[in-house]
Please model this.
Amino acid sequence: MRFRHPDGSTVHLAYCTNVHPAETVDGVLAQLRDHCEPVRRRLGRDRLGIGLWLAKDAARTLVTEPAALRGLRTELDRRGLEVVTLNGFPYEGFGAQEVKYRVYSPDWADPVRLEHTTALARLLAGLLPDDITEGSISTLPLYWRTAADEQRAAAARAALRTLGERLDALAELTGRSIRIGLEPEPGCTIETTADAIAPLSAVAHPRIGICVDTCHLATSFEDPGTALDALTRAGVPLVKSQLSAALHAEHPHLPEVREALAAFAEPRFLHQTRTVLAPDLMQAAETPLATGLHGTDDLRQALDDGALPDTAPWRAHFHVPLHAPPAAPLTSTLPVLEAALTRLVGGAAPLTRHLEVETYTWAALPPELRPRDRSRLADGIAAELSLARDLLTDLGLKELP
Model:
């Protein structure tokens, strides 16, 4: 979906296909047929943007078999779909029964990550619509925090510098500018947007910046205006933003709230959980992450007695559907998304032109909330995109054909 910003530029809205498990090119083609095109039809659109996730096997096939890439591009066009952004965070196995910590491997200290991301950039340059010259790819924020040391940090910086050189060469060769955005995520060495400033300043390449995920932003209790203003002042490129909402519990000490949270503590994905404590309570709490911020790696851990202070609200890294917040006593952080979107595209000029709805947890919702079939899933994704479309038009953007 394309929108005209009041400054005349085009803002793209897509939804991320990592919600549909696929590891091969045949699986990706099936996604387009079974999921993406039905969503487009529900929205009554001739054209729909998708944020494509290409696992390592699919990417390898598309790179080594030019006919496969041509076939994918043809299929996108035939089904009224377009790609300006890729999700390059998961490498493989995102549809597995248990993902958890495996989603952070390989990380940016591993040469495999550089080669995979380079391949994705080349593929995106070939998938962009004919009238678009700029693409974006989101990627993991260096590595999981327990893997951090100076040797790995140096390897990651070197990899990103090499990537920048390759992106420059790709732009010169194809006329397409592909940008990479590190995506801050709770538990990683870059947990918050503030954590991203120093590493990205050290790399200092205009095609390497940040992807702001509004669920992650909210989970770490970041204020959208403060965070985005700091990135702008630091000159960090805002490559893309993923529009998502976290799980919020205002009173986690109440038994009924903990029972409601337990329904979301599922075994497939990692649901990092955070709270912010007042200064006088900080010394007594464990697991400090930043000033006042405390947390656990997963929601199930947080629910264990005493694992996480429950005197202040909790937020969990669980991407809940934008249009359907959980029932009381829980809610979502949709207001954080709205505030971030206002700052991202509601000003005189957009801070980013690539927006991606990324609710990949439909199948991980409590059983009574999960879509029962493909048709219900398409209904839900279309409803999320409709909400995002309304938010954009309320900010003065005009939907384009």
